[in-house]
Amino acid sequence: MSVLVNKDSKVIVQGFTGSEGTFHAGQMIEFGTNVVGGVTPGKGGQTHLDKPVFNTVQDAVDKVEANVSIIFVPPAFAADAIMEAANAGIKVIICITEGIPVNDMIKAKEYIAAYDCTLIGPNCPGVITAGEAKVGIMPGFVFEKGSVGIVSKSGTLTYEAADQVVKAGLGITTAIGIGGDPIIGTTTKEAVELLMNDPDTKGIVMIGEIGGNLEAKAAKWIKENGTKPVVGFIAGETAPAGRTMGHAGAIVGGADDTAQAKKKILRESGVHVVDSPAKIGEKMAELLS
């Protein structure tokens, strides 16, 4: 089993012929992802990376039955790309773009609520199901098939956690990079819930950071509904108060937004919190032994 993407996913790339879209689509194809084409307005009818190019997402859905989209579109147009994908019937929309105006994302999130779709991101590394499909920008060689799911706000810590879990002999089911913007599609709680309900996932790594309340909401859900061990790490312990740290959502707005406060909430909810990212793999191995 897996969540969100697998070997049967029919993936298209919005912004297919741009430099980012080209590079990462090539990496995804090399990984074995079923990329069925891409979208670049005005270039429909051409081929790129030996795949068809379409003018619209609707064309891609109609002609190659696309059901997953990954977005490499500049910030000014990315919210429109998200809405276009939802409107065309895409089920899983993964937006990599960083720097989308918050006002645009508010409108896009409200718009897609009327559709049966899941948005991951924006400003995220994507989703990878080990051995099946990589829909994102993660280094695929790190992810080997196994029994641990990952939910993370941080791209690089996703790869770091995966590497440790693999080296601990456990491997990965699906890793979900939810993104670090103030307005994102899928929350930490929703991603944890997907993995908690996946029969092949035996343990979950949850990586959060300062700012916002996503981790606290996830912790409350885990306390009430959790059936598998969760290892937690919160990034940003030494971040100066009041400063945005890389991710637009990583700014401490109140007492509960600090790393210390979040760790306390997680521990009280039964999450096994590690104080260093270097301990993630060994802690999960200990819990699953």
What is this structure, in a nutshell?
Pathway: Carbohydrate metabolism; tricarboxylic acid cycle; succinate from succinyl-CoA (ligase route): step 1/1. By secondary structure, the protein is α/β, with parallel strands linked by helices.
Structural overview:
The protein is of the alpha/beta class. The chain has 2 domains: 11-120, NAD(P)-binding Rossmann-like Domain (Rossmann fold); 138-288, 3-Layer(aba) Sandwich (Rossmann fold). The protein contains 9 helices and 14 strands. The protein has helices at 19-31, 57-64, 75-87, 102-112, 155-167, 188-196, 214-225, 259-268, 280-288, and strands at residues 11-14, 35-39, 47-48, 51-54, 68-71, 92-95, 118-120, 126-129, 133-136, 145-152, 172-177, 203-209, 230-235, 272-273. It has a 7-stranded mixed β-sheet with strand order 3-4-2-1-5-6-7, sandwiched between helices. Strand 3 and strand 4 form a beta hairpin. Helix 3 packs parallel to helix 4 (102-112) and helix 6 (188-196) runs parallel beside helix 7. The longest helix has 13 residues, at 19-31. The model has no long low-confidence stretch (mean pLDDT 95).
Tell me the major beta sheet: 7 strands, mixed
Q: Which band does the percent of strand residues land in?
A: 15-25%
The fold-level CATH name of the largest domain is: Rossmann fold
CATH architecture of the largest domain: 3-Layer(aba) Sandwich
Unreliable spans are none
Jot down its keywords.
22% strand; alpha/beta; globular; single chain; 7-stranded mixed sheet; Rossmann fold; 9 helices; 289 residues; 2 domains
